Every structure is written in C-alpha cells, then in structure tokens.
Amino acid sequence: MSFDDALLTEIRDRFAHVERCPFTGERIFFENAGGALTLNEVVETSARLAAIPDNQGRDNPASHALVEVIAQAREDVRTFFDAPGGAVVFGESGTELLFRLIRDACLGAAPGPVVGSTVEHPASRSACARWAGESGRAHILIPHDDATGRVTAEAYAAALPADAAVVTVLHTSPVTGISMDLPAITRVIRERAPGALIVVDGIQHACHGGISLAQADVDGYVISPYKVFSRHGYGVAWASDRLTALAHDSLVGGPAHQWELGTRDTGAYATFSDVVSYFDWLGGQVSEAGDRRARIEAAAAAIHAHETALTQAMLQGTDNLPGLASLPGVKVIGGIENAAREGLVSFWSSARPSPEIVAELNARGIRTHLRKADHYSGNILEPLGQADCIRVSMAHYNSLAEVRAFLDAMRSILN
C-alpha cells in the first residue's frame, strides 16, 4: 500500500531537489541507487557544523558539544542497525570500510578460505580477492541464480566449507534491486562454519530500511550514507566485538581497538543522526509505536510497501498505461514477479538499444541510468549475454504520478 497524498507531500517537502535538478530544471529522479536525494536537514546540519572551528577532544564548551554529537551519532547508528554493543565506525566511504573490515578479518582470522558470491558488488569481491591472496587463503565464489538475481541460504549451505574463515554477503544488489535473505544466510553460515567472520555489504539496502543485526548474526555491516538520504564524504560501519578485537591500523600508544584514524568530520556524525531522526519521524506518521526502534521498523515496513506499489505499477501498468512487462522486447532482470525486489527495476528491450532509451528518457526529464557489463555490473549482465541495461531506481519519496510519466514515455519510445 502506497502513502496517501498528504503524507507523500510531507515526505517530499523534507528532501532537496525532489522535482528540479539545479542544473537542468524540472525532472523526475529515478536514479536513487546511484545516490538518493538529500534531506534538507542534512544540508542545514552540514553547513552549521562546517562553520565550527573547534576540534574534538579539547577542554572547552564547543569541543565538549562536538563530542556529544559524535556520541549521540554512534548510539543512533546502533539503533538504526538494531545492533547493541560492538563498534560504530565512520570512515571515508562504504567501499573503503568494506576493504578495511575485510582486510582485518582476512589478516586476523583463523586459517581457512574466504567465501563470497558472484552476485556481490566489486567493493566486497575486490577486497576479498586482494586480501585472500595477501593472507594466503583460497577465495571461493558461490554462484548466484541468473533467473532470480539471488544467492540463497541453500546455495551457501551447499558450497560453504566448514573451515571458512571469512564470509561476505550482499544484502541487496545495486544492479537488480534484488535482496538476499540475510538472516537465513547467516544462520546457515553459523551452522556450517561457526568460526567464520561475516561481513555484509548493506550499501544498496539501507535506504529501504529493514536492517536488524539482532536478527542477522554478523561481524560487520557497511553502508554509504549518501545512498540513504545523507551526503557524500563518509561511510558508516558496525563491527562486532570479535572483529574489533583483531589488529587494526592504529597509532602507537593510542586507544586499544581503535578503528578511526585522525580527526573525522563531526558533520558526518551529525548528518547520520538526521537520517535516523527522519526514519523515527516517518515511523511516527505511519504507526503508533512507542519507542524509537519500533518507529524505525514501522518506517521501513511502510517504505517497503510504498516502493512495492511503485514497482508493481511500473512492471504491470496502471491507469490504462501498459507496464514494462507488456512493452515490446522488454526483459526485466530478476523476472517480473520477484518478491525480493526493493524499489528498483533493471531491464533492456530488443526493440531499441539501452543507451538510446536512457538518452530519450533524459530528454523527457526522466533521470535513469545505463548499467554496462563493466567491472561494476559485468557479474550480473555477462551471464545474461547483455552488454548493458537500463536501471530505474526508486525511493519512497517517488510517486505513482512519476511512474505514470515514465510509462507514458516508455510507450512512446518503444512504439
């Protein structure tokens, strides 16, 4: 069920550049997987914190206030991830944090192979390839199913060796929008290889909500805040006590088990608190939940329902407009009916080349993205025999009217 018009208007009012690009003017933004829209509050917080000259760790009121902002952000991350304990790590980017967590796991874990899957983004696959080699470990890739775009718990169960030392999991694919059943996969890993360190790429999943590390027993979870309504310039991770106990890059004589190096931008911490506050607010609009975590869960459920309504309309059609499933030569990656889809549809058409379709949509003020069989998307497209596809990625602030405009444009482009 989608948001009603009044609530959707309130939601859209909280974001910058919802309907207009600052460079090209009016447009529909269906490129959210490349980077979601930014909360207005994040823009304001960034400017306010950037102007403060004081550093953390000094004995003055401004410095104390900055330390409080950082401490609050760490608690907000734990609430958002549903992850008590462990360490909250702010870094350069989601990719950088995946490399760091995977590197330290590979260098510090017990003997055994590194295991991932072919569906994963190159951030985790590249880190595993590098650090498996550097630590003298085999690197095993579990094949994903091309038809559904998923790697399942059963696939992990069939291929995972009992001595697996490090295991990586992709929560949701940024190419297809298809999510993996993370709790089911981690249960299998714990049963088959209880000593393994599990690191999860949650970068694409985060803006759709629904993260609960209490339900998925992992050692590391990484997101990129610019893909979840914040801004560029930092990444966020959670690391278990077990992973944190391993050796890390750190200053000689510095605090034990320190992940972060140097003075981080306090504005990064503060702007992620803004994101968590937004989920809290939205949960209060769609439920009467009494505590913050429950409101975040309610927001995630409402986001999923709204985005499902949008993707179903895009695939099946609405208001006498044919959906993608009915348009000439269209093939949807992951299939038309896929309950694991999260707000994203990737497709191609034999009727027209993908680059032409993206260009035509852009000319009509509809922003989508061309994915190529390169180092980012080749693992998905090459097995399908495709050189490229069109990615249409939505978020919960997109509307059914925007989907209608997209379908009307596609009908014209392909007919």
From TrEMBL:
Recorded coiled-coil stretches: none
Keywords in alphabetical order: Pyridoxal phosphate
InterPro entries linked to this entry: Aminotrans_V_dom, PyrdxlP-dep_Trfase, PyrdxlP-dep_Trfase_major, PyrdxlP-dep_Trfase_small
Span of domain Aminotransferase class V: 28-406
Pfam families tied to this protein: Aminotran_5 (PF00266)
SUPFAM superfamilies linked: PLP-dependent transferases
Top-rank taxon: Bacteria
Keyword Transferase among record annotations: no
Protein name (database record): Nitrogen fixation protein NifS
Organism: Pseudoponticoccus marisrubri
